[in-house]
Amino acid sequence: EVQLVQSGAEVKKPGESLRISCKGSGYSFTSYWISWVRQMPGKGLEWMGRIDPSDSYTNYSPSFQGHVTISADKSISTAYLQWSSLKASDTAMYYCARRGSRGNYVAFDIWGQGTMVTVSS
Amino acid sequence: DIQMTQSPSSLSASVGDRVTITCRASQSISSYLNWYQQKPGKAPKLLIYAASSLQSGVPSRFSGSGSGTDFTLTISSLQPEDFATYYCQQSYSTSVTFGQGTKLEIK
Q1: Mean of the per-residue pLDDT values for chain B?
Q2: Which of A37, A47, A22, A18 is closest to A95 using CA atoms?
Q3: Which residue ranges of chain A lie beneath pLDDT 70?
Q4: Cys-Cys link to A49, which of A60, A77, A107, B12 (CB 3.0-4.6 A)?
């Protein structure tokens, strides 16, 4: 079965660092980009950025550039999203998603189950 | 960034109704438009890609149309399991963007 499995929920204090993970299985991990998507409580979906696991090349949304870091370890088929200093406004559900292709078109065809991050003093 | 605007933001309908949701892009995106369904507490699910192609396993009551800047998602006969939030998403640019969502509620 093709799936992305994310790490569990986190509760952190402002200023702390955090890294969450997304492990792919059932497919060639290096053949598909992985994106991260934020969903704040009661709000819509926001694309944060993506990584090509084959070479770790990244692109970020201007809204998130400099605030988070996306990385990957292809030896264990895992992508990461990390913060060096969390803020209360980082409280959200975070999804990883696989960028699948159909001819010239691409879409997020496989999603992780989500990781809830709560930042509170 | 390309802005995606959905309408309406919310919609009440009954089982069996035909429903249409609209998505408009701030510039032409050809057919690089996808639709997702999200149920409470769950990850989004891909329904339609390339504006009108049905993702494998998605019921045929879902259909998409449009190109350029204007797109629609139609559900031909609402089923109880279709009450959810729907998002459009453009994949024309490297920096992808989503619409704000349309919440489909039971009347």
Answers
A1: 97
A2: A37
A3: none
A4: A60
